[in-house]
Amino acid sequence: MSALLEARGVGKKFGGVQALKDVTLTINAGEIYGLIGPNGAGKTTFFNVLTGLYTRDGGEVLFAGSPLRLGSPHEVTRAGIARTFQNIRLFGNMTARENVMVGRHARTGAGVLGAVFRSAAARAEEAAIRRRADELLHYVGIADRGDDLARHLSYGDQRRLEIARALATEPKLLALDEPAAGMNATETAALRVLVEGLRADGVTVLLIEHDVKLVMGLCDRVAVLDYGEKIAEDVPAAVQKNPKVIEAYLGGSVA
Amino acid sequence: MDILLQQIFNGLTLGSIYALVALGYTMVYGIMGLINFAHGEVVMVGALVALSVMKPLAAAGLPGPLVVLVALLVAALVCMALGFTIERVAYRPLRNAPRLAPLITAIGVSIVLQQLAMLIWGRSYHAVPPLLPAESHEVLGAQITELQLIIMLVAALTMAGLILLVNRTKLGRAMRATAENPAIAGLMGVDANRIIALTFIIGSALAALAGVLVSANYGIAHYHMGFILGLKAFTAAVLGGIGNLAGAMVGGVLLGLIEALGAGYIGDLTGGILGSHYQDVFAFFVLIVVLIFRPSGLMGEKVSERA
Amino acid sequence: MDQKTKAYAGTFLIAAVLAVAPFAVGGAFGNTWVRVLDYAALYIILALGLNIVVGFAGLLDLGYIAFYAVGAYLYALLASPHFGLHWPAWAILPLGACVAGLFGVLLGAPTLRLRGDYLAIVTLGFGEIIRIFMNNLNAPINITNGPKGIARIDAISIAGQPLSKAIEIAGLKIPGVYLYYYLFVVLALGIVFVSIRLQDSRIGRAWVAIREDEIAAKACGIDTRNVKLLAFAMGASFGGVAGGLFAGFQEFVSPESFGLMESVMVLCMVVLGGMGHIPGVILGGLLLTVLPEAFRHGAGPAQQALFGKVLLDPESLRMLLFGIALIAVMLYRPAGLWPDARHRREMAEKKS
User: Fold this and answer.
1) Per residue in A167-177, pLDDT tens?
2) Residues A17, A20, A21, CA angle at the centre, nearest 5°?
3) Residue from the list C200, C205, C224 with its beta carbon closest to the beta carbon of A74
4) Residue C318: is its pLDDT beyond 50?
5) How many separate domains does chain A show?
6) Last residue of some domain: A156, A183, A207?
7) Does residue A86 form part of some domain?
8) Shortest Cα distance from A19 to chain B (angstroms)?
9) Using the beta-carbon criterion (under 8 Å), do A115 and C209 form an inter-chain contact?
């Protein structure tokens, strides 16, 4: 298996708080990689550092063999990492289809002149964007909601739409930030089917999740963060038995 | 005469007035995230109401400081009522409207206030009677008037009072809680509507005071005085870090100093190419530079956007 | 009638109305009102430019009039006795668009990462700076002629025919204000066309995405800085064109025409009409040009008739009503008078 993403010694400080300490981990191509940890362990911080929203304070990240320039989210997306957000960030006043079409931005190039004069190339590109958007809506199972405003979709459908939009950027790595948060059991089960389908289609997935059951059932490998440090990285079965992990979870809730 | 010191005195006087007005902007912004565009006009109303009270009282031969005090009280009451009304009519119904809507109503309120003032007080410039002691003293080679000292002192005392109010009283705590998170504050039993109304009332009282001081300082008042003053004060609030009370004061004083020194020295600095009528450019230029290098203002906290 | 026939019929109808409008209006109310229509077309161009910045990309620009000023002064300097230059309009107007666009980039590059309200105040400051410079750049070298402004600017000419002079076609005398009307309307239609095409494109979607959620837009791979700059430059260049037209039409420019109140006026056209919705913005521009004018003419006589004398200064009454109208429209129709279908749907939902 080849490494798709290697983080080496990544750190992040907020004021005096060390939110991430020397985090080193490797995500292999084609796997579903889970990142778990108690509340405030630094999962989302790591995510935001990785996707360029925060600048890191140390360490380096190699993606597909080349160093990732951090601190500019759109370049990270162009390099092939797409993400969803913990508290869903859709373009609420655009339709579901338009949301996915925006996701094609990085992979298309029509400019002002193309738009104004509707050149043949621009028209063809626009048609391709629309076609691909419809395909992706179908893929995540909300083909019939294409013309509805994003904020009128149900919670579960909004999660799916966000995944479709992320997939539109043609990611090599899809990073999902607590996709099951706020979902009921049926929705979670459907999400699981969707993510498994992604793996089958060759997309590497980084999954941050609170729902330990979902992570353990879905992921090939799991890393555990506690107080900004990685305390374990292994297959789910081994992580579950790791005494450090048990202490991080139980100790945290007892104290 | 020491020009540098002279300009510092002038700048501090002007700056204390900016600071008072800036507080009104910053308090409202801190609590509601709204630029109360009409605040400058409240200052103007304060100045003109006070003037209308001063004239007959002064003519009746009452002592100057007493007249100013009475005028200030009346102006403050009128402005507080005005501030309350503005919030009630133009902002409260729009709490959940698109972001630009309250800005447009604020502009509408400014226009209405300005035109009403013009209908009541006319287009002309009014001379403000010199009721406060204005004797000039020499300090280290520069002139400082008693009026300037009074302005600085009153502004400083008012601001100290405001800080105590916000940091030490139950009302202040409720204001800070509402600023932090109105929904949670509501759950804790804080009546956000009441707090917001009170914020407008307090800000308007400060505006009235600033109106009286600024018209005393320049010796004139007119219906159009609120606009540019409001703009400068808002600049001061942003300069200090909007939403931050101490920032508004620092920003106000700093802006006053920058303007006074800029106006005093710009001619020398540019070899006479640019003259003192570029004073306003100076203020805005500094604002732009500060915002580019420190977008949250001098004393604003650096907040990174949350994902 | 099928869809296509309907569309053609609609286009033909609009074209016919636009073509006869000056004759109808001029015949009924006099040529002063054709002049008002000319201004309406100019303001519509301006409002559509600002709509790209505020309506599409969601960037609150309170100093937009500065770009209008840049276009106007450029025209004034290059086609008046002030410098003795008499460039033709077809050369100056595109140049004005470019120079104003450049100013847009210069202002935007350092400021566009600021949060919304800060951007508003910085652009406002920028507008004031430009105005102060226009007011004071008459010494030591006289560039702008200061507060007195620049007069005797060349009228816009097409094929050697100055639009300020009436022409006769088949015995029909067409006055200059009519000619300007047609020029402005054609250009405004061009700008409408460009706006519609942009709205429905990759770039237009990127603007709206930024307006809706900037962080999510970045996560979609949009280089938000460049895309915002593009909006700024486009909006500014429309403003520059409008400014040039204004200078040629008016044959006089002075700093007074470019105050904050003008910026506010254009912003109000956009917001009152319906932000981001092109027909709404056009309506806003038309209403806010024509109604105040109608009021200016009507308020004095109306008071005379009602009370036997003029109680309130019509000018001030006009502004007063304008202010009240702004408040009322925002309170009762916060999405504008003619919002797009999405917003309309939303209003209906809220009511039910």
Assistant:
1) 999 999 999 99
2) 100
3) C224
4) yes
5) 2
6) A156
7) no
8) 14
9) no
Specify whether the backbone of A225 is left (phi greater than 0), alpha (psi in -120 to 50) or beta.
Answer: beta
CATH architecture of C3-351: Orthogonal Bundle (1.10)
Lateral strand order in the sheet of A58-63: A17-28, A3-14, A58-63, A66-67
Q: Which two tokens stand for residue B81?
A: 């009522």
Nearest to C316 among B33, B115, B278 (CB): B115
Is the residue at A162 inside a domain?
Answer: no
B279: closest CA among B76, B73, B28, B14?
Answer: B14
Is residue B232 a contact partner of residue B283, using CB atoms and an 8 Å limit? yes
Question: Residue A74 sits in a domain of what CATH number?
Answer: 3.40.50.300
Please, what is the average pLDDT of chain A?
A: 90
Q: Tell me the pLDDT band of B306, cut-offs 50, 70 and 90.
A: very low
Q: Please provide the CATH number assigned to the domain covering B3-293.
A: 1.10.3470
- Residue A57 DSSP code: S
Contacts 24+ apart (CB under 8 A), A140-147: A140/A164, A140/A167, A140/A194, A141/A190, A141/A194, A142/A96, A145/A96, A146/A95, A146/A96, A146/A97, A147/A95, A147/A96, A147/A97
CA C178/CA C41 separation, integer angstroms? 12
pLDDT of C249: 95
pLDDT tens by residue, A152-204: 999 999 999 999 999 999 999 999 999 988 888 888 999 999 999 999 998 99
User: What amino acid is encoded at C294 in this protein?
Assistant: A
Where among A156, A179, A207 does a domain terminate?
A156
Which tops the pLDDT comparison, B297 or B45?
A: B45
Contact B16, B262 (CB under 8 A): no
The domain limits of chain B are 3-293
Are A57 and A115 found together in one domain? no
A163: in domain: no
Across B93-156, the runs of DSSP E, i.e. the strands, are: 126-127, 136-139, 142-145
Which pLDDT score is estimated for C342? Answer: 67
In the predicted structure, residue B235 carries a pLDDT above the cut 60: yes
The whole domain housing A138 covers: 94-156
Question: Are B307 and A44 spatial neighbours (Cβ–Cβ below 8 Å)?
Answer: yes
For A178, which DSSP code?
A: S
In a domain, A150, yes or no: yes
* Of C182-186, C221-225, C311-315, C337-341, the least confident: C311-315
* Residues A180 and A110 both lie in one domain: no
Cβ-Cβ contacts under 8 Å between B and C: the total is 127
End-to-end CA distance of chain B: 57
Whether the pLDDT of residue C351 is over 80: the answer is no
Candidate from A118, A126, A169 with C-beta closest to C220:
A169
Determine contact, residues A8/A56, Cβ cutoff 8 Å. Answer: no
- Contact predicate B23/B161, CB 8 Å: no
C103 inside 8 A of chain B by CB? no
Which two tokens mark B194? 């009441």
For A95-145, the pLDDT digits (tens) are 999 999 999 999 998 888 888 998 999 999 999 999 999 999 999 999 999
| B153-164: pLDDT as tens digits | 999 999 999 999
